Inverse folding.
C-alpha cells in the first residue's frame, strides 16, 4: 500500500487518496451503478469518501443524538441548535463538515442537495446535479456517476441517494414551513449526496 | 554609453528611494499611498506590511491579513457567506460574476471614491447574483430594489443574526419598552458583575493592601491623591502593589504600557487592540491620539496617546468615569453631544445616584462596551468599541433587547436622525421585516393547516 502523499501540491487530494487506498475493496459494492464517465480510481475514491460520510452520519445519529436525546434524555437536537443550546441535526452536522472540508482542500467537495431543499440554495444547480438527482429518483438503489467542467476545471461527479431513514426526517421536512414538499414517506429518496473530485491531467 | 549610465543611475536611485520609502527609513510612507484608506483602516495605513505582508507578497498575503484580523468576528457572527460557499464548484458560475472567495472583491482599499459604509466597494445590487428569484419565493420582496437589501436594516452579507425569520417571528408584538430593568439585566448589572468578578478573583488573591503597604521606591514622587486612589482601587484590594505594574526588568518606570495591563486583563486588552482606540498600539505603531481621529473630537481633548488609563484614569481605575465622562472628554459628534439630554443618560444618572436599581442605567459603555458572557462563566467587558457597530444592527441582540422590543430596536437603529439625536424621540423609520415574516408564516400555516405563529414549536428531532 502506498503511503499518503505529503507534498503541499498533493495535499488537497491526500485525504481522499488515503481513504481510497483503504477502501478499494469496497468499490466492488456499486455494481449496477451508472458509469458513463470518470476513472475507476476517481469513482472508488468518491465511493470511499461517501462510505466515510455515511458512516460518520450514522454514528453521530446513533451514538450522539439518539443516545443523548432519546435514551438518556440529556439534550435534544433542534434546527436552531446554537440559539437553543442543543445538538445540531445530523443533516446540519453533515453540512458543517462539508464547509470545514472545503476550507482544507480544493480537490474534493461534497454537499447535500435536493430538488425539495428547505433552503433553495441547496437545490440542484449544475447539469450533473440535475441529472444525478433525476437518476437516483428513478433508481433509488443506484448511484449516479458523471463528469462536468466547471470554471475550466474538470470534475468527476457522483450523486448518492439520500433516503428518509427515520420518521424524524419525514416529519421535519413535511412540516417545515419552507419545505416545498410535504408528502415524504419513509424510504423515499429525499435528495442526494453529491461528491466532486477534481480531475487534473 | 553615457546616456545608458545616466539612466541606469537614475533607475537605481529611483528603486533605492522606493525601497527606503517602503522600509519607512526615508521620508513619509504617505507618498506611497495610492489613495486614502477606509475609516476602518486609516489608523494603520502607514503600516503597509500589516495588510500587504511585504511589497511583493501578492494577493494571498492580502487575503490572509484580512482573515487574520476579521476572521474571528466573522466566525462569531455566524458568517452567512463564508468563503467555502464560493469555493464549492457548484457555484462557479456565480463566482464568475462576483468572486466572493476574495475579501477584496467587495472591500477594495485605497479607493475612497468607490467605497462606502463598512468599506464596501461592490455595487449594491450584488445580492442578485445568487438570489435573483427571491421575488418569486417571497411576494413581499418582488417590488424591492436590490440596493435596499442591505441598506434599510434587513439583511447583511456577513451577519444576519438579528434578521433571521424565526427570530423576527419570536419577537413579533414586543412592546417598544420592556419592563426595565429586566430580571436578567438586574442580575447582570455592572455592580453585580464586578462584585462577582472580584469575589472570584479574591479566591487566589493575596491579602488586600492599604496605603501603608505601597512599595514604590523612596525616590519616586507621587501625589497623595494617586496613593489614595490606588488604596481604594480593585488593585489594592487584590494585592496588586506599585511594583506589580510599574516595575520592569528590575527598574521602576513611571508610565505603564498597556501590555502590562494585559498580563492580568488579557481579554480586555485583546478587545481594546481590536478596536479603534487600541489598534495602533496593538500593532506596535505610535499609539492613537484624539487629534488623529476622523470623527469629530473635542477641541480640548487631551493630546495624549491612548492607553488604558486614558479612560480609566491612573491608580483609581474608575469604571464609572470610563463609562461616560471619558467618552465625552474626547468625542464631539452629534450622538455623543446629545447623550447628556437623553433618556439613557437620565437612567444612568439615577442609577449612579442610587435612586434606580443596578443595571437600569444606560451609559455610553452600556451600548458600546457591553458586558458579555464569557466562557469562564463571568462577564467580560468587550473593550472593542467597534465590535457591535460593524454594522450597528449587531447591537440589537446583545444590547438593545435588554430594554426594548425587537421592532422598536430595528426601527430606531435604521433611523439615522434618531441615532444622531441619541434616541431622543421615537423612530420615524419603519423596517417591515417583522411584519413580512409574520404575514408569510401565517399564510404558510393557513395553507398547510400547521398552526399559527406562536403555537408550540414542533417536536425536537427524533432519530429512529
Amino acid at each position: 500500500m502506498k503511503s499518503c502523499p505529503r507534498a503541499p501540491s498533493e495535499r488537497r487530494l491526500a485525504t481522499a487518496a488515503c481513504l481510497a487506498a483503504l477502501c478499494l475493496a469496497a468499490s466492488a459494492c456499486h455494481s449496477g451503478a451508472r458509469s458513463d464517465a470518470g476513472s475507476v480510481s476517481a469513482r472508488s475514491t468518491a465511493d470511499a469518501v461517501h462510505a466515510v460520510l455515511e458512516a460518520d452520519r450514522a454514528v453521530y445519529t446513533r451514538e450522539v443524538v439518539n443516545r443523548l436525546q432519546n435514551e438518556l434524555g440529556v439534550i435534544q437536537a433542534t434546527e436552531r441548535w446554537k440559539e437553543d443550546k442543543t445538538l445540531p441535526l445530523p443533516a446540519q452536522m453533515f453540512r458543517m463538515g462539508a464547509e470545514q472540508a472545503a476550507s482544507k482542500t480544493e480537490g474534493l467537495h461534497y454537499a447535500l442537495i435536493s430538488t425539495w431543499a428547505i433552503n433553495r440554495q441547496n437545490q440542484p444547480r449544475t447539469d450533473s446535479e440535475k441529472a444525478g438527482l433525476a437518476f437516483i429518483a428513478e433508481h433509488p438503489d443506484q448511484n449516479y456517476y458523471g463528469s462536468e467542467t466547471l470554471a475550466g476545471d474538470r470534475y468527476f461527479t457522483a450523486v448518492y441517494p439520500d433516503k428518509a431513514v427515520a420518521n424524524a426526517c419525514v416529519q421535519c421536512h413535511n412540516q417545515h414551513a419552507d419545505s416545498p414538499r410535504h408528502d415524504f414517506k419513509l424510504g423515499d429518496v429525499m435528495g442526494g449526496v453529491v461528491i466532486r473530485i477534481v480531475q487534473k491531467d | 554609453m553615457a546616456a545608458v549610465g545616466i539612466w541606469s543611475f537614475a533607475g537605481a536611485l529611483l528603486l533605492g528611494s522606493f525601497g527606503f520609502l517602503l522600509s519607512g527609513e526615508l521620508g513619509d510612507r504617505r507618498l506611497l499611498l495610492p489613495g486614502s484608506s477606509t475609516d476602518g483602516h486609516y489608523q494603520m495605513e502607514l503600516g503597509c506590511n500589516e495588510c500587504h505582508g511585504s511589497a511583493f507578497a501578492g494577493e494571498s498575503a492580502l487575503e490572509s491579513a484580512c482573515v487574520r484580523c476579521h476572521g474571528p468576528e466573522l466566525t462569531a457572527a455566524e458568517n452567512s457567506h463564508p468563503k467555502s460557499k464560493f469555493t464549492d464548484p457548484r457555484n462557479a458560475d456565480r463566482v464568475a460574476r462576483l468572486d466572493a472567495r476574495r475579501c477584496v472583491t467587495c472591500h477594495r482599499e485605497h479607493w475612497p471614491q468607490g467605497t462606502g459604509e463598512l468599506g464596501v466597494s461592490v455595487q449594491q445590487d450584488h445580492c442578485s447574483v445568487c438570489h435573483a428569484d427571491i421575488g418569486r419565493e417571497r411576494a413581499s420582496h418582488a417590488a424591492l430594489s436590490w440596493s435596499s437589501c442591505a441598506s434599510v436594516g434587513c439583511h447583511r452579507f456577513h451577519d444576519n443574526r438579528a434578521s433571521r425569520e424565526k427570530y423576527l417571528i419570536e419577537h413579533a408584538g414586543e412592546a417598544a419598552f420592556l419592563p426595565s430593568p429586566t430580571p436578567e439585566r438586574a442580575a447582570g448589572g455592572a455592580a453585580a458583575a464586578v462584585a462577582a468578578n472580584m469575589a472570584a478573583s479574591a479566591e487566589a488573591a493575596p491579602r488586600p493592601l492599604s496605603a501603608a503597604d505601597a512599595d514604590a521606591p523612596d525616590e519616586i514622587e507621587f501625589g497623595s491623591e494617586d496613593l489614595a486612589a490606588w488604596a481604594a482601587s480593585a488593585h489594592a484590594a487584590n494585592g496588586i502593589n506599585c511594583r506589580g505594574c510599574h516595575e520592569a526588568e528590575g527598574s521602576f518606570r513611571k508610565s505603564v504600557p498597556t501590555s502590562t495591563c494585559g498580563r492580568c486583563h488579557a481579554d480586555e486588552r485583546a478587545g481594546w487592540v481590536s478596536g479603534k482606540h487600541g489598534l495602533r498600539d496593538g500593532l506596535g505603531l505610535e499609539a492613537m491620539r484624539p487629534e488623529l481621529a476622523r470623527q469629530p473630537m473635542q477641541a480640548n481633548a487631551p493630546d495624549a496617546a491612548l492607553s488604558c488609563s486614558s479612560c480609566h484614569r491612573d491608580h483609581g481605575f474608575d469604571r464609572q468615569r470610563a463609562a461616560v465622562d471619558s467618552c465625552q472628554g474626547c468625542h464631539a459628534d452629534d450622538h455623543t453631544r446629545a447623550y447628556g439630554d437623553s433618556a439613557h443618560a437620565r437612567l444612568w444618572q439615577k442609577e449612579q445616584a442610587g435612586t434606580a436599581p443596578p443595571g437600569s442605567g444606560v451609559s455610553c459603555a452600556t451600548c458600546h462596551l457591553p458586558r458579555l458572557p464569557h466562557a469562564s462563566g463571568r462577564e467580560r467587558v468587550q473593550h472593542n468599541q467597534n465590535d457591535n457597530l460593524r454594522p450597528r444592527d449587531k447591537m440589537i441582540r446583545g444590547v438593545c433587547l435588554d430594554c426594548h422590543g425587537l421592532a422598536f430596536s430595528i426601527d430606531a437603529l435604521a433611523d439615522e436622525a434618531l441615532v444622531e439625536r441619541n434616541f431622543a424621540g421615537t423612530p420615524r423609520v419603519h423596517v417591515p421585516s417583522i411584519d413580512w415574516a409574520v404575514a408569510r408564516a401565517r399564510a404558510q400555516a393557513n395553507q398547510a393547516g400547521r398552526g399559527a405563529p406562536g403555537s408550540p414549536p414542533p417536536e425536537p428531532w427524533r432519530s429512529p
Q: What stands out?
A: Confidence is low (pLDDT under 50) at residues 1-33 of chain A. Chain A has six helices and four strands.
